[in-house]
Structure formats: structure tokens, C-alpha cells
Inverse folding.
């Protein structure tokens, strides 16, 4: 029986995508082998990569002068690889939570860094128009603290965005973004791939990097400088088709707003549960919440899992609970969670 997966990542994948991959696992395209077992130089594998890149461009309306790259190492690697590829002398970071902190540490290894924002992470700090640095970095959606940047504003420098936990849940304004990256394992596919969409004019082919980490060279080679994570991209291509079939990014946005709005309403109407984030800054993807009595946290997790509501325990740095509401979450999941929360409150308050 499939349970409701509220994991912050790696997250659940659409059931139809898993079933399609299952059916093809032993025999892909009549070859009598899986897609994992043949060369990435095979024309059929190359076609999968090209299809995935084409669908990304269509779903996100990516301009032609931006590269679409499947990079290895995940989003954490990007905290160092982006400054190494862009070769900045100075960077400004909008700090809205734990992943912003990691980006700050990564950038500090390669450039002078200035910061707007600090803990506690319960709102988006006011950000004046940024100038005088080589780029501005921000995290669109903080998975741990549940803070979402609704509008980054307009700046006089290139803008780099970590969209790992919100990619394909809403449109991207490319007039305000020069590089967007996202670990795949939340809204896009399994772990092992980081999607990088970058304005080609920013990329430095001569950066002192191994070719497998050089964005310009990855772009030139169709993300195949070395053997790429073929199975991960194969699944991503299927997820992209699933998003398209369900109405594209606009449909994903509507679903995200519907799910998060109903869950926040249940929390706000209760004296037993609470969410510390300012309403205008609340994430649509990751909803952290606290129980009035933290001694009940372990019992809440135990009982929720018995009801098929999985992986609700909050991050160790903030405690409490966290419900991640990524694109693949079935429509019935949030109503089931709310019903359980109300029952738990009625029996424990």
C-alpha cells in the first residue's frame, strides 16, 4: 500500500512515473535491458536527455540564451561550484534560513561576502536594491524554516537563485534571474542530479575547474562531459511529462497554494499547533509546525506513521513537525493529515 509521503527530500515521485519505470526496468524500448545498463552515448539515451531539456525550456519558458544543464553533486555542491564558475570577487546573500547559511559559507571560500538577514528565520528581511557586487544569491524556499521569498525585487547585479524545493511549482521571472539551480530530489526526480539553468554570458569556459564541474563545458557537451546519472535523468524526463499532462507549472502552483492554504488554516485555527513564520513569508512547499507540548512529538510521529502519514518529524535544528507538500503529493494527503491532527489534538490537548 502506498503511504502519504511528507518527506522534505528525497521526496515522493508520482505513482504513474514509478509504475512506468517499473514496467521498463528489465526491458527498455525493446532492448531487453534497462536504461541503466547501456551507454550514455546511445542515441536513445541522448534523446531522453534532449527531451528533458526541451520540456524544461517549455515548462519554465527558459530563454534561448540560457543553458540547461544536468550537473552532479546536488545543490550542496553548487554552493562552491557556482562561485567557482562565475569567478566573483564579491557576493551578496539574502539570508532566510539554513540553506542560505550554507550558501554563505560556500561563497566565503571564494569571494568577499556581505549578508542581509539573520536568525530567527520567521520572515523575509527587507532587501534594498543590490549593486556593487558580482551577484546576489538567495534561496527561494527554505525547506527547514519554511520561509518563501515571494518577490526578490529588481537589482543592478546578476541574481542567482536556489530553487531546490520550489522548482516547477511556480513560474520563474527570467528578467530577474540569471542563474537558477535546483537539486532534483524534491520536485523533479531522485537524488544525484542538480538542474542548473544559467545565462550563457555568465559562464566561464576557462574557469579553473575539472571539466565535469565546468558549466560552460557541460553546456557544450549536453551534460555529458563524463558518464552522467542516466537513470535519474530518465526519471526526470518522465516527471516533466507528468507535470505537462496535469496542466504544467500553473496547475502545480494552484495545487501548492490549495494544499498549503488548507494546512495553514488548520494550524492557525488550533491552540494546540502553531507555525512561527509570518503569513506573507510562509512556504507553499514546506510547512513546519510545533505542538503545544513537545513531549508529545514522538507520540505524534508514531501515530501518524501508523495512519500512513510518513516522515513528518521536523528537522533536528528546529524540532516539531514538518509537512512537505511537493508536486507529487496526492490530493488526498493534506485532508488526511488535517483529520489526523484534529483527532490527535482532541485526544491529547
Amino acid at each position: 500500500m502506498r503511504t502519504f509521503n511528507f518527506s522534505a527530500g528525497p521526496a515522493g515521485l508520482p505513482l504513474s512515473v514509478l509504475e512506468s519505470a517499473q514496467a521498463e526496468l528489465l526491458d527498455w524500448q525493446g532492448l531487453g535491458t534497462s536504461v541503466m545498463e547501456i551507454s550514455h552515448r546511445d542515441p536513445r539515451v541522448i534523446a531522453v536527455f534532449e527531451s528533458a531539456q526541451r520540456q524544461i525550456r517549455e515548462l519554465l519558458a527558459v530563454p534561448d540564451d540560457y543553458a540547461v544543464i544536468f550537473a552532479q553533486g546536488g545543490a550542496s555542491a553548487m554552493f562552491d561550484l557556482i562561485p567557482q564558475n562565475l569567478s566573483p570577487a564579491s557576493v551578496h546573500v539574502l539570508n532566510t534560513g539554513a540553506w542560505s547559511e550554507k550558501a554563505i559559507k560556500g561563497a566565503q571560500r571564494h569571494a568577499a561576502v556581505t549578508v542581509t538577514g539573520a536568525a530567527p528565520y520567521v520572515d523575509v528581511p527587507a532587501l534594498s536594491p543590490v549593486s556593487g557586487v558580482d551577484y546576489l544569491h538567495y534561496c527561494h524556499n527554505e525547506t527547514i524554516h519554511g520561509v518563501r521569498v515571494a518577490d526578490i525585487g529588481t537589482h543592478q547585479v546578476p541574481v542567482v537563485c536556489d530553487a531546490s524545493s520550489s522548482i516547477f511549482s511556480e513560474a520563474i521571472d527570467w528578467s530577474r534571474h540569471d542563474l537558477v539551480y535546483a537539486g532534483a530530489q524534491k520536485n523533479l526526480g531522485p537524488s544525484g542530479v542538480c538542474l542548473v539553468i544559467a545565462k550563457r554570458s555568465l559562464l566561464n569556459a576557462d574557469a579553473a575547474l575539472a571539466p565535469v564541474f565546468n558549466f560552460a563545458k557541460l553546456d557544450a557537451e549536453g551534460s555529458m562531459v563524463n558518464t552522467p546519472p542516466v537513470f535519474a535523468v530518465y526519471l526526470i524526463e518522465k516527471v516533466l511529462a507528468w507535470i505537462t499532462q496535469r496542466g504544467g507549472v500553473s496547475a502545480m502552483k494552484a495545487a501548492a497554494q490549495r494544499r498549503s492554504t488548507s494546512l495553514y488554516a488548520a494550524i492557525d485555527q488550533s491552540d494546540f499547533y502553531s507555525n512561527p513564520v509570518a503569513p506573507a513569508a510562509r512556504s507553499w512547499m514546506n510547512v513546519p509546525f510545533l505542538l503545544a507540548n513537545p513531549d508529545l512529538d514522538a507520540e505524534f510521529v508514531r501515530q501518524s506513521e501508523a495512519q500512513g502519514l510518513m516522515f513528518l518529524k521536523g528537522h533536528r535544528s528546529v524540532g516539531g513537525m514538518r509537512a512537505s507538500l511537493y508536486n507529487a503529493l496526492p490530493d488526498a494527503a493534506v485532508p488526511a493529515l488535517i483529520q489526523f491532527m484534529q483527532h490527535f489534538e482532541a485526544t491529547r490537548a
Summary: The CA atoms of residues 4 and 244 lie 23 Å apart. The radius of gyration is 21 Å. The mean pLDDT is 96. The chain is about 35% helix and 15% strand.
